[in-house]
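Let us practice reading a record.
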Amino acid sequence: ITNVPSTTVDHVGYGGGGFASRITTDNSDNMCIGVNITDNGVIDTIAVTGTAEVTQMALSKWNAASRCLWVKYLPGSLIIPAAWGNNIYVAGLYQQSNAHIGQIQLSDSANKQQGYIARLDSQGTCIWAKQVVGGNTVLNSIDVKNNHIYVAATSDSCFIYDTLHVCALPNQGLGILMQLDTSGSIIWTKKISAANRFSATGAIAVIKS
C-alpha cells in the first residue's frame, strides 16, 4: 500500500496463526502493523516466533515499497499502533508476569488484563512505557495528532494511569477518554459511566488535516 495519507484501519483480517490489529502510516508512507502470532512464521522475509499462549505481539514496519524493515516483539494479546512523525505510539494489553518492552519491565498483571502505552522511535526502540492498572482494563483505541496522543479505554472497576485514579460506581462500567502529551503525561481526561458493567468507548479517529 503506497501513497496513503496518515490514516488507520482497525482489525484488518483474521486467520492463519494470528491477526493484524491495525495498520497505520507515518508521514513518509511507512506502514506499521501490529500482528498477533500464535505460530512460527515469516513477515515478508523476517522469521518470527509465535507463542501458543498469545503472550506476545509482533510490531512490524514496512517501507513504501512494501518491504518489511524490522519486527519487534511486544508483550500481550493485543497491540494497537499509531504513527506520528518518526515515532510510533502503541496501546497494548497483557495478562502475564515478567512482561517487558525492551529494557522496561511491566509489573505482574495479577491475572487481570492490564494495559500499557508506549512510545517507540523509528527503529522500534522503546523510549518510554507507562502502565494502565486497576480492574480488567481494555485500551480500545489510540491515535496521534500534532504531538497529542488520544486514548479510549474501559475498565470493569478502577482505572489508574499516571496521575489519574478513577473508579466505576457499583455494578457500572467505566469508560475513559484521555489526551496525553508526547511524554505520556495527561493533559485532560473525560469519564464515561454506563448503567451496567459492560461499558465501551469504541474506537477513536482523529482528523489529521
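A brief commentary: Residues 78 and 175 are 19 Å apart (CA to CA).
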